[in-house]
Amino acid sequence: IVGQPPSIGTQWAFECFMWFSWWSCVAEVSHFLAHRPTNSARIHWLQVHRFLLSKSHHANHHKLHNTHYAFLNGITDPVLNVIAHTFFTGYKDAADTHALKYLSSRN
User: Fold this and answer.
1) How far, CA to CA in Å, does 1 sit from each of 5, 12, 27?
2) What's residue 2's pLDDT?
3) Which carries the bigger pLDDT value, residue 64 or residue 90?
4) Are 27 and 34 within 8 A, CB to CB?
5) Are 39 and 20 in contact (CB under 8 A)?
6) pLDDT confidence of residue 64
7) What backbone torsions phi and psi does residue 74 show, to the nearest 5 degrees?
8) Which run of H or E residues covers position 76?
9) pLDDT of 29-45, one tens digit each?
10) How far apart are CA 74 and CA 66, in angstroms?
11) 3-state SS, residue 41
12) Distances, alpha carbon 15 to alpha carbons 22, 23, 54, in Å
């Protein structure tokens, strides 16, 4: 109804959505920075202190099989690794196959 304040549930859902959106954006930037060289002392400090994903931590995702999927700062990787190894054993193979097909179709 126009002019009435939102219900508690609607307000809570909206706030959760906004926080999730905000942290998703931060995580995308963190992942991007883990792939790029940087001369920024601030970014390096944030990566070393695990506020952002470090290059060395994220490299495990590209070297090892089905591991290190967290891309905000890697802190939740121990839990995600157990989930991935238990329930999604073929994920990396399927993703790699898909990526190779995609890359070869672009040529």
Assistant:
1) 9, 18, 36
2) 67
3) 64
4) no
5) no
6) 79
7) 85, -5
8) none
9) 999 998 888 889 999 99
10) 14
11) helix
12) 10, 12, 29
